[in-house]
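The protein record reproduced below.
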Amino acid sequence: MDVSLDLVKKLREKTGAGIADCKKALVDSDGDFEKAIDYLRKKGAATSQKRSDRVAKEGLIFARVSNDRTEAAIVEVNCETDFVARSDAFTNLANAVSEAVFASKNGEIGALLGVKSASGSTIQQVVDETTASVGEKVEVKRAEYYSTSDGFYCDYNHLGNKVASLIGLIGKVTDEGVSLGNDLAMQIVAMKPLTIDRSGVSDDMIAKEKEIYKIQAINEGKPENIADRIATNKVEKFYEENCLIEQEFVKEPGKTVGDIIKAVSGLSGSEYKVTTMVRFQLGETISA
């Protein structure tokens, strides 16, 4: 049967699928618009299954906070090429996943895929539709959700959305506090701290680092007692480089992040303390 170009365009706008696919869907569905949508969804699901063994190493990372800053979400959505990652269809998918995390207050992928998006489709259906539209494997790699009753969150999305961060602080939501949070979120992206403070570094990690530093010093000909002192000093440097609070503040060299938090706390009349630190970078290997 013949289908009008207007109906084909309408289906394309609704689903994001290609013109040829939309026309075929309408023809095979005898012009029934809703059946054509289902047809394309099934095609997308089949395409997703067909491409399941392909590698999706490109994509986008979005960090978001709620309007009142009491909730935060960060997601990573993957595809096969950077070209697709920069497409409107893929950006819309990433946004839909972010919104679903807030709606469900859940970052568990299995549960997230069943959440309905603003369009009425589940996230899994949006993934399938996007796969059919862009012609690549598309997947939701990871997502996290946070909430607080005694503080606030700030986010930072680096240009290109290949890396992003969230920071959570205890304290009042003031202009000074939010500015501090934004700066710390940027610090996390730039300086890659491993932990918020020393309490987040395990004894095993420190013992391992100290052993490596000591062996290096001994291999350089240093006596054992001197090597031990060198190792201890290098452990202190390790803390300074890898604990957020002890890092040099990128916007004010010579001052630590801890110094800045103390100064802003004094100015705003609210004592701020970092409680949450999250950094996602595209392509990271994540533990099961």
